[in-house]
Amino acid sequence: MTQGTRATAAEPLPLAEGIQGIVSDWSSDQRAFKNVPWGKAMMWIFLLSDTFIFSSFLISYMTVRMSTTDPWPNPSEVFALVLFGKKIPLILIAIMTFVLISSSGTMAMAVNFGYRKDRVKTFVLLLVTAALGATFVGMQAFEWTKLIVDEGIRPWGNPLGAAQFGSTFFMITGFHGTHVSIGVIFLIIVAIKVIRGDLDHERPGFMTGRKGKYEIVEIMGLYWHFVDLVWVFIFAVFYLW
Amino acid sequence: MAHAEAQQHPVAAHVEGQQHPIGIYLKIWGLLFVLSTASYLVDYFHFQGYLRWFLIILFMLLKAGLIVAVFMHMLWERLAMVYAILVPTVLLMVLLGIGALEADYTFFTRGVFFLKGLL
Questions:
Q1: Minimal C-alpha gap between B68 and chain A (Å)
Q2: Residues with Cβ < 8 Å from A207, sequence gap 6 or more?
């Protein structure tokens, strides 16, 4: 009865909430994911598939660790460092964790300033995020060098105990480190697009005809937070077990 | 009548993307630092057994939840997307269970095999 009195045709109908909202979104025309840019929904679906990849790695690691009859090397001692003449357990991994969490914090703020169209702050925060990510990869390279050269740990065996330690360690941290490295490259690309004003002038990026918008900073952020999220699980189940 | 009322309260318009006060990110950042320190201290003080497992898993899930909910904005997304992303991950619990069962069995058969070799 009130439908005829709607002021403008451009005003969208309100969306249903709760369980009813799920049903109506999924059964609606054209698109199931309302109120999100297409690229963001696609990034979430990619991250879901990546979740399954990392989960397969971590669950395989659990399976080989539980089934080996050889003693498992103690991560607390393997990843200890001598600092100021004192041996501190697991300190390198703790610092790496703080570096990655900090990069997640700067990324979240970059997304925020991006939507406020604050070009310079977004650019600086994206570069800080990339720098922290590169620091993380650098520390990981140091850790790998220490393990390979000093401790003699190889993917097929090591002098400390179970051979599965090396294979799962290099596989899981290597795959995660690759994700961080790719993220650093894309952070720099997005940062350049931001400072050049590509997103303000809606210039399309390479390999796409879609207009550049500040939502790409958020999509980049989703990927970066995911990399941090995976590290939370690796830190807990690989280093603290 | 109900229809008319529903129209008076439209869903808060999404101006552009997710806009939240900067303070919430700083608070979550601080909280993540505290939780990471706590999980490091679990190792530093050599907690063992069920206490260690309980604390490690608790801090892990809290950190993961904070990152997904606030940093990745899941808290403010529509339920259709939240469920599409989070429900499939629950299936991984099945794989986890299968992996644990399989590992126990492999450990048992290896034990039998190596014991036979000793006799």
A1: 8
A2: none
